[in-house]
Design a protein that fits this description.
The chain is α/β, with parallel strands linked by helices. The strands form 2 sheets. Strands 1, 2, 6, 7, 8, 9, 10 and 11 form an 8-stranded mixed β-sheet that branches. It is globular and about 50 Å long.
């Protein structure tokens, strides 16, 4: 195994079933030693995914976009153009078999990448994902985390809102959060002209500082 995962960037939106199939195959290969780790950066066409804790009542508009059972942890979330997905297929047998540490590292990865654009991303107790303080008691979610681990090999990962259509989040209760002072934002909504390529560079640059190499 090499110390550095393979990095793959897809330039066109990848249908969710295709992405899931690709991840499943890669995870099996990582597990049996026939392939190395991979970080896959992509976008999806507009869709909703339901994690293992999703509640049907949180799907407010079930006919708006395709809905997929994701197999990852968490509740409902939206994926679509303008949102960077980073699927992380990493071998925790080599990196340390600690699920809580892995999720914390995913959050830290997002926080450091956002800091490249002077965005202060923060964790919140009892709320999944990374949040930004909008002032006046309002907080908006800018990134989501949802993972699955099979025999200590990880898949699924994170999503960061660069410039998605934020209105598309209204078809669900995102991650079960429906308080009036909580919402969803993006880097462009925050007034930052960040491109997908800009974010990809930030993610790549901050990865090793968080995850390091394999043992």
């Amino acid at each position: 195994m090499t110390d550095t995962p393979e990095w793959r960037i897809s330039d066109t939106p990848i249908p969710y079933p295709e992405a899931l199939s690709t991840m499943e195959k890669r995870v099996a290969c990582i597990r049996d030693g026939s392939a190395g780790e991979m970080v896959w950066l992509l976008e999806h066409p507009s869709l909703y995914t339901a994690g293992t804790s999703a509640k049907e009542a949180d799907l407010l508009d079930p006919t708006r976009f395709p809905v997929y059972r994701a197999g990852r942890g968490g509740q409902y979330t939206y994926h679509g153009p303008g949102q960077r997905i980073a699927y992380t297929m990493l071998d925790l047998r080599q990196r340390g078999p600690d699920v809580r540490c892995f999720v914390h590292n995913l959050e830290e990865w997002i926080i450091r990448a956002l800091a490249s654009f002077n965005v202060k991303g923060e964790r919140r107790e009892g709320r999944v994902g990374i949040w930004v303080d909008r002032g006046g008691g309002r907080e908006d979610k800018v990134a989501a985390v949802g993972v699955r681990i099979r025999r200590w090999v990880t898949f699924h990962g994170i999503s960061i809102n660069v410039e998605p259509a934020l209105e598309h989040f209204t078809g669900i209760v995102p991650c079960g959060i429906d308080a009036q002072n909580l919402g969803v934002t993006s880097l462009v909504d925050l007034g930052l002209p960040v491109t997908m390529t800009d974010l990809d560079v930030a993610l790549r640059d901050s990865f090793d500082g968080v995850f390091g190499g394999v043992r």
